[in-house]
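Query structure, 206 tokens:
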């Protein structure tokens, strides 16, 4: 598939089905791109679709099957959009760090493929509003899904979730306690963390 060069081409890209419940169009909206009138179109649609398909099938579908509808807050970013956001302090990392993360159509420095989305789980957002600890959801995902990276944010307990060919399995947070919750080599990385998510639903598959 070529990079869309027209509205019709972009429309066709948006119709590409990534998984049972998600289409490429679900991941192309960007407030930065919309407000500043920057193109948020993949340079390599085939790579973006392949990486996005893995993100959806492996991580997002099980989350939605288990917790109900999930909301996509931010997902695919073109290198142009991400670079613009980084330079202007709009919560975008450097392009080099965002390849195989929000920039789905660029491989990382090791030539590996990945894709990430920032999502909200309304089922948990309601509980978080009422005082639930974000670490409950973080440890549930850690124990049940083959994520590569999670990063939690204070508003709505939104979090980045990444699929990657070589998953690092690291969790970071801007919610207290801030910093790294776990990564390989830390004493808390292995074993069950079920005491953190008592009362959570059992894992379901789409």
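Result returned for the query:
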């Amino acid at each position: 598939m070529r990079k869309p060069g027209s509205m019709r081409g972009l429309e066709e890209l948006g119709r590409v089905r990534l998984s049972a419940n998600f289409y490429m169009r679900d991941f192309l909206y960007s407030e930065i791109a919309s407000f500043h009138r920057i193109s948020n179109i993949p340079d390599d649609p085939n790579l973006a679709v392949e990486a996005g398909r893995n993100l959806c099938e492996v991580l997002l579908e099980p989350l939605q099957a288990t917790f109900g509808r999930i909301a996509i807050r931010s997902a695919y970013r073109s290198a142009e959009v991400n670079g613009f956001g980084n330079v202007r302090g709009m919560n975008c990392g450097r392009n080099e760090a965002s390849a195989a993360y929000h920039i789905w159509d660029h491989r990382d420095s090791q030539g590996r493929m990945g894709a990430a989305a920032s999502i909200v789980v309304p089922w948990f957002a309601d509980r978080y509003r009422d005082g639930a600890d974000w670490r409950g959801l973080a440890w549930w995902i850690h124990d049940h899904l083959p994520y590569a990276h999670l990063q939690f944010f204070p508003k709505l307990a939104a979090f980045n979730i990444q699929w990657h060919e070589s998953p690092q399995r690291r969790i970071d947070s801007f919610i207290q306690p801030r910093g790294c919750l776990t990564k390989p080599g830390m004493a808390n990385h292995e074993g069950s963390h079920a005491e953190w998510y008592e009362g959570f639903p059992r894992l379901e598959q789409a």
